[in-house]
Amino acid sequence: MSLTSDQMELREEDIRKHYTAATALLEGFDHAPRIAKPVAESTAPERSPGVGARRRFRSTTPGLVTRRTVQADGVHLIDRIEAADDGDALTSPLQATVQHGLRRAVAISLAMGEVYSDQTALGDLKRANLAGDLPPARKAEFSELLTAEALISAHVLGNALAYLMSSHLTETTVDVGEVEELLTDNGQIALHGALWELDQVLATKAPDDAHLVAAVSAYAEALMEKAAQRAQSAQHLAGFAGSAWHVEADDLTLRGFEPASKAKSTTLTMTFKKPTEVVGNHIAKYQALRLAKMLMAYDFDRRLNPFAELGGFIFTFMGDGKPGTGKTTLIQMMAGLLNDYCQVAGYPFRYQNLSTDNIDSYQGKSGQNAKAFINTIIDPSVIGFGTIDDIDQLAGKRGDRQSSAGQLEITAVLMESFAGANTVVRGNCTFGMFSNYPENVDDALRQRAGARFLVDGPQSREDYIDILSLLMGKNHDIPLGDHDLMAAQEIKRAVAASFEGHNRPHEAGLLDVFDRVSNQIGTLDTIAKLGTYLKGIQQADERFTGRAIKNITDAVKVRAMDFELPDEWMENPELFLFKDYDTKKAMISELRVPITVDMVLQEINRYADSEFRYADKSDEVAIDAMVRDFGRQEEAKKRYLEGKG
Asked: Does this model's pTM top 0.70?
């Protein structure tokens, strides 16, 4: 793999020279835990009879008398790993793989710590401190740099170890809890604390090889997360956080405090649908087709999609419609298109659905499951498509007493991930939320859907003839009759008619606003008049906020990209997909069309129609629920009085 402009090489010789030190750490070292409490015995061999144990150490150094001191225990990770299967005297291939991966990760961590020391003042300050002539004025800086080195060492250890173990993971999972022994004295002490705690995890969580790999990987992930959290408030880390280092032998790229991961595809077992097998749903089908091709424009070297920079990329969308109108078929179509495109281009593709299985009774676990789902899809080294089917059952509505704690956790994670302060839209993935009852979705979460796909199924007489013929198959002799099969599904003609249908609103409440504003100020053909219309909508529905305006303008930008990337660009990657970022951006820019008043008005009506539709349903559901509650109260009061009388 060639290095990109923002990457530097971490040389193999600089890593391998630390193998001896890394091996020594795995063979054994002493560590007295400061924060975490030991839960397992040392793997060190027993003392001979008659040899007394050392007395508990008590520091006499001024200022350290009150520091917690515990007997230092021997940490022997090689012995601990080999003890994962007591029934076999020989080291298993998987145990050897873990040992080699751990040594490699420690060596990479030591090499990165050395690079950081050389690139900052830390190297000079270490030499001055060793010689005893460290200036007093620089002691605070020296301490801050040592803390930074410790956090880098811990994070790189976890990052490299999780990456190296990822291809050996199975379905077995291990919960290692929170990392506690993260010490920030310096890089060496940080490694001692992390390896001691890993030894404790393996002693209690790794009874066999499958649990061994799962435990090592889970601890590495937890160590990464804890180090990244601590790094947010530490000094002198901007240089490391903003740089990228590539390890050629492992194809590992360390990008600051971002987790690295192997660009692996998920194995899809779903039944794919071709666009010709989707009847009706013209706008939704059209947008899904275009979005699939948009995702393929992602540039893996720049880690950015030209559509995300130019505008018009759909990061989140909401698909709603009545049961049986084709939401699942739409998912199968889009996933199938992306899977086929990625196979042609050789790109890794991941699809995952967040389902009710992810709701857990343990506090915090549902949120962790949702975050793991998000992280799997947003991985910048893959093309990702994530779906949340029946989101009204998964994500709780805040203030709704029927929402479980797990559902509310999922709502919080999705809201933060889709439009939070730290959300970065690179253009490599998209998330689709689908529901038969979108009015039951939390308002704030629903508004984080940048686009609306109305999944209304077959509508016209021609649609119903087409779907009947499609589902009947060919095992019959019934004549088709006077009908041009699938002509109504011709996408451009159907979409044009669908968009024109939104020149006027569909919902009664919005139609009243539209007519009233149009009668007052005339045809809505300027920005000022369109803004007046938007204000009228807000007066009718206070939930129509600034976020709604952003979603509308994003949809307008999508319409400005109202073109499909040519099919031959997907079939022959050399024509477009394998071009450099700037070339792809220029090719896309040439295809853009001007924004018109009709586009803006249609998108306002489409979005506002959906909000009025959701609000009306939500209000009706709430009113019905209150009526039932009042009825139950009256009946209960009646029975109570009858019982007393």
From this structure: no
